[in-house]
Hints:
By secondary structure, this protein is of the alpha+beta class. It folds into 3 domains: 16-237 and 405-456, BirA Bifunctional Protein, domain 2, CATH 3.30.930.10; 258-385, YbaK protein (Alpha-Beta Complex), CATH 3.90.960.10; 474-569, Anticodon-binding domain (Rossmann fold). The protein is 27% helix and 28% strand. The chain is built from 15 helices and 31 strands. The strands form 8 sheets. Strands 3, 7, 8, 9, 10, 11, 12, 21 and 24 form a 9-stranded mixed sheet that branches. β30 (541-546) and β31 form a beta hairpin. α1 packs across α12, α2 (44-63) runs antiparallel to α6 and α2 packs across α12 (448-458). The longest helix has 21 residues, at 167-187.
Amino acid sequence: MRQQRMLIPTLRDVPGDAEAASHRLMLRAGLVRQLSSGIYSYLPLGLKALQHIQTIVREELDAAGAQEMLMPALHPSELWKASGRWDIYGPELMRLEDRHGREFALGATHEEVITTIVKDEIQSYKKLPVTLYQIQTKYRDERRPRFGLLRGREFLMKDAYSFDRTATGLDESYQSMYNAYERIFTRCGLNFRAVEADSGAIGGTDTHEFMALADIGEDTIVHCPSCQYAANLEKAVGLLPPSPSSASKQPKLDGRPKKVHTPKVTSIKQLSEFLPISPKQIIKSIAIEANGAPVIVLLRGDCEVNEIKLKNVLGASEFIMLSETDIQKLGSIAGFIGPIGLQNVKIIADSSVMGLQDAVVGANEADYHLVHVDVERDLADLAYHDLRNVTEGECCMSCGHQLSFAKGIEVGHVFKLGTKYSQSLGALFSDENGASEPIIMGCYGIGVSRVLAAILEQNYDERGIIWPASIAPFAVHLLTVHVQDEVQMKLSDEIYKSLSRAGLTVLWDDREERPGVKFNDADLLGFPLRITVGKKAGENIVECKERRSGQQYELTVQQILTHCQTFFQTGGRSSHE
C-alpha cells in the first residue's frame, strides 16, 4: 500500500484524558478515533492489526476442533429471564424496547443464545461433544469507560462454548481451550500468566483468567516465583505471618476476657494506638446483611475483607452494611461490635482469626472493648472460611515461598459452566439408555480488541509502537527519502513489487514530506522492519532498521528479500550479523 493514499491521521499531541499508553499510541498513530465515551472506530491500520489477532484466534480454535458461527447481538429478554440473569447481570446490561414494547438486550455475552440453539439442534449423545465459537461485537454499559479499548462500552470479543455429556468430557474440552489460549497469546507476543479466578456473573466453577502483565492493569495478580501458583486477588490465598504473642498491657483475669474503657475509640488504628497493641491482635467485626439476614464477619485487624469470597461463602449476589439502628437491634453498637455475647445472629470468621490468643474484640457496649480474648476458649464454635485479600509479605500455601504481586489486564477467561444454563433453559440430551440428562457446558472468552490494547501496553518506547511481527498492520515500512529523485523512486518500486510478490505486506512511504517527518512517523507506527531508499540508491544499496532492537545496517537489493524472509520466519528477531 502506498502511504500517500492511505488514511493514517497521525497526531503530534493527544487529548489529556488519554491515560493509558495504548490509548495515547492508538490515537497518535491513527489506529482508532473515538465516536463517543467508550465507543471507537477502527481506522485502516487499527483494523489490520485487529484482523491479524482474529486470524490467530481462528487458526488455533479451528485446530482445537472448534467450529465458527455467528449469533445475533439483539437478544429477547425472555432468554435472560429464563436463565435468571435479566435481574442479576445489573446495569451493565444494555436494555431496550422495540416499537411493540417488547424488551431486548444488546448481547454482553451469549450463553443464553447458544444454549437455546443447541437445545433445539442437539438431543442425542451421538452429537456430543461439540465446541462452537464466534467473533462478534459485545455491548456493556460501563459506568466509567476508560483507558481506550481496555474498558469500553462496545468491544470485539471471541466467545466459545463447549457441550459435553460427562464431567470428564468437560475437563477435556476445558483443557483443549486452555492450551489453545496459551498458543494464541504466545503468538500474539504477549507476556501473560494464567491465574485462578472467580466466575462472577457468568457462573460456574474451575475458572482461569489469562492476564497480560502491565502496570495499567486494573486486576492484581498474586503469583509465586518458586512454583506455578497464580491467582487473581479475588481468588488468591496465602499464609499469614504469625501474630505477636501478647496483645495488651492490661492485667489478665484468669479464665475470661477483661472489659476495658476505650472512649471514642472506634477504628482499628485508634484502638492499636490507645492500648497500645498490634492490629494483628485485634479482631474486627463487620456487620452486614446478606440474603435478608444479619451476619457478623470476623477478620484480623490488619486484614481486609474480600467481597467476592464473602459473597461466595454466603451464597449471596450482594450484601449491604448494617445501619446503626440495625446494629442496635442485635444488642450492639456501631464501632464497638464484638462476637462475644451476641445472640441470634450468624457469625463467620476468616482463617486469620483462627488460634488467636490474647486478642481484642468489641464489647458490644459504647466506649468498651474486651482484651485477653482466647479464640479457642471464648469463640469455640466459629465457622472459618477464606474471606480476606492476600497481602504483601504472605507466603505461598503450596511451597512456602513469599508471594509476588503484579498488575494485569484480563485478555481471556475460561469457565466450567456445568449445567447452570442447560438446566434453566432445558438443553437436554438422551443417553444410550434413552435417559434425559442436561448437557454439561464450558465457556471461553477472549477480548479481541482488548488484546490489541494489551499488546501496545507491552510494546512501545518513547518514539512509538513496537509491533510484534505476528500482529503488525504491515511487516515492512518502505521509505523513499526524496520522491522527486527518479533513481530512488525506481528502486523503491522494484523493492515494493518484489516483497509484495513474496507475500510480505509493505507500506510504502511515498509522501512528499521532509525526511525527518517520515522517520518520526515510521518510529511511531512501529512496523518490524524499515527499509530506507536514500542516497545510495544508485549503488543498489539500502538501509534496513529493526524497530525492536534498533539495529541498522546496509543491504544490497539482492539481499533484501532473503533477509526479510529470514527475519519473519524467526518471529521478527534480529538475525543480522
